[in-house]
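Students often ask why we bother predicting the structure of a whole assembly rather than each chain alone. The short answer is interfaces. A chain on its own may look different once its partners are present, and contacts between molecules only exist in the joint model. In this exercise we take two input lines together and write out one structure for the complete complex. Read the inputs first and try to guess which parts will touch.
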Amino acid sequence: MKPQEPPRWLEAVVRWALPSGLSGDGAVGDLREAFERKARRSRLSALGWYAAQAASIVAYRFVSREPSQRGGSDLMMDLRWSVRGIARRPAFTAAVVGILGLGLGANVAVFSVVDGTLASTSWWADADRATAVWPDDLFSLGQLEMYAEQQDAYRTVGGYVELAFAVELPDGTSRSVNGVLMTPTLFGELAVQPTLGRGLVADDGAFGAEPVVVLGDRVWRESFGADPGILGRRVTIGGRPVTVVGVQGSGGRAPGGRTELWFPIVPDPRDDDYWKASSYTVIGVRRDDADLVRAQDDLMAFTRTLSALFPMFYPEGYAEGRAHVTRADEAQRRLVGTPLLLLLGGTAMLMLVTALNVGSMLLGRSLDRRAELAVRTSLGASRGRLVRQLLVEGFVLTGLALGVGLVTGALGSDWVAGLFVESPVVAGSDVLSPNVLAFAAVAAVCAWIVLNGVPVAHFLRRHASGVALVRSGASRAQRSLVTIQAALATLLIVSSALLVATVDNLRRVPLGFDPTNIVTVELSTPEDRVSSPTVARELYGRILERVEAMPGVTSVGMTGWLPLRQDAPPTPINLQSDPVDPREAVRAPMHMVDPGFFATLGVAPLEGRLLGSEEQSLDAPSAVVVNETLAETLWPNGSAVGQMIAIDPHAWDSWAPVVGVVPDIRSGAIDGPIGPALYVALAESPSRDVTLVLRASDDVPALEGALRRAVDDVDPLIPVRTVSGMEDVVRAAYSTAWVMMGLLTLLATLATGLGAVGIYAILAQHVTRHRKEIGVRLALGAEPSSVVVRVVHSGLTLALIGIGVGLLGSLWSTRFLESLLVGVSALSPSAFVAPVVLLSAAAVVAAWIPAARAGRTPPAEVLKSE
Amino acid sequence: MSQDYLGEFEQMVLLSVVRLGDDAYGLAIREELERVAGRSPSSGALYTTLDRLERKGLIASEPGERDGARGGRPRRYVAVTPEGKALLTASRHRLMSLWTGIEEALGG
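Now the answer. The structure tokens for the assembled complex follow.
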């Protein structure tokens, strides 16, 4: 009969835990021999025995149980002592680990988002040398090529424009995908390169070259089933067949953060748009010997060329103070850099609060262990030995909390990143990445220092000066800790209050229209569908008809620009009554809308009329509607209606009448001033990216399917990008402030809660310790209510001192919030009153239970026990 | 390497090794401890102690024959070294001195 053997995997564990060589071999063999004997009687009990032996061997690998020998494992003893102590007090341990884990987890979550965001903004392989050339301005293709030839600071320079493309899927439907038209040589400078096939190369941009595309990893997986044979296939994008030459690596969303398709720019100088269409963002990768100063000089030299060639668009001196170069990732960093860093500051404060809280709890517990520590001292344990014991215990608790923190941080990271929906660059990074782990370790070490600092310092002082000082000293230390927590909570509450005020202000910002019951549908039409204005007009007309016929839809309009999502670039305005040079002309964004647009938004003209169907024919003279601000700017003393203006710098005396004045409608940023604006008929130059706006009685989820079907019925190859309620669009416009408000309020609430718990703990201890005194006082005739008031008063005093310190700190710290605040000053009084009210209330609530208990102290019992 | 003191369990292990003579190996030592001293040490405790005793030069080990029933692994036979014997004897003297004259106080 074959000898019985223990399970192989268990034996492997034993093997791992034992030293190599004869020692380990002998032990493994012994265990097998013993197992075989026991298994003859009962295999089950033999298995149980073997498992127990394996567990003991593994445990001994880490912790020695033998008495400490000279040169033996003192540290291991401390570790074992700590683990035992922790296991003996599960509730206390759970509280400590939970609180500390919360603080660490919040920090890990936010730091991982900061790290992921900063990493995701490094779109360029050479992030330090990638430079944005005049990021606030857009170049035309002709200007870009001219600059590329003239410049001297870059080894590669090119441009890109972000567009949405209609991708025809294998199943015959189409999908709108974000992509870029890009100078092919710039592709090679991206940080992420294709994993299949190749990227764009210079030849792809040659005139007459075969149309090619590089697919994004996600598009390839989701729309083409990750087909490995995709290379060389022709797919129809934007109505045109293009050949797929490569699949971009996953994580490559650059430039723009949403890109899923990369097309080469194929310049055609004969095309009207070659000089006219200013659409391209210019990026250059600087040569090794060129710094930003040199790049700036280079750009200024070019602007002088631009002024000479295009005086209408670049008047002399126009570039001064405007044209500049920056790091290519600068804009993206600024977009979310400040809010995220502020958030990190907030979580750091919470971390400090949790560490102080735990420190106070450990201090409290060390008072309970006075006897134990005194006995050990008398048995010969040195001060250093006992301090090391305390430190090791703190270390074990911090280690457990770090584990909790990493898990909660991983969950929290995605959640936090997901809150910043409007920002494509915000991303969490993997919690197990080196940066995040290093940060977590540093945070844990700082927490360990803080939470150990006070108990150890207290212990050392007590050790030096005798036991007598124990109680008052510890009590004082605990009070200080709670006061500091209250101060930190104050800082967070003030910040949160300021953001609450900001969000409130943003919500009240006058939009110029009523967003309720308005639904928006963003379309991105393939190029070939809008090949001419006539074709486009006809197509859009059919879509509008179809949507208007839908049940529940009361009004529909169309625009090339959606309020609060986009803003049109400014165009100069010439006045027939007072002609000006284009370089001196007032500029205003020109929005293209159809007749139904204003009616759907509920906007009525202040003077004259709105654009009507008479403007929708190409033969009609262009009519213009202006907003209030523009009317007041250009004609402060008279009516705008009837005035003749020209808006095309290429046809500077082609006059069109102003037919109406409308109230200001908020366009770009929600917190900026409303500027001048003018409106012309969409029919004149229909764009590919249009948005339907419709007023409907149903909400978005109910309508979405029907809307997509309606567009599909007209033309299945026109993809619908998004369907959203106008109220959501408005909310998205201030989403960053909203998210910051939410998160800071959460942090402030947690800090306040912890501070209150701290106050409760101190007062509870105080009441317990002074029970006799209270009993005596009550016996001598004091009213219970006076006892209660005294206790509440001491709790409140602690809080108020902390609040005072915190308010002073806030006077300095709120300046960091200024960039986020709208309509409220960083020193707003109401924000400074908030913590006084909230923390005082929390302190009173926290003090109430011990206070009530004190008031109920039975004097007779207390005196009897004297 | 010498050291002045032996822990209680170390003493018990060394004494078991002496008692077993040439047949002293891990499993046998465990069984001896169970039989004579009524103590059932865990494998972790036992093998860690054997390793420590060997590190301190109090025992020496050598391999036995490879045995198919043990998965081809040899037994680790151990023997007490002269230093180990000296330490055991010193330990015994110390204990005996402390025990002298206190039987009455212990009621035995």
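Check your guess against this: The two ends of chain A are 77 Å apart (CA to CA).
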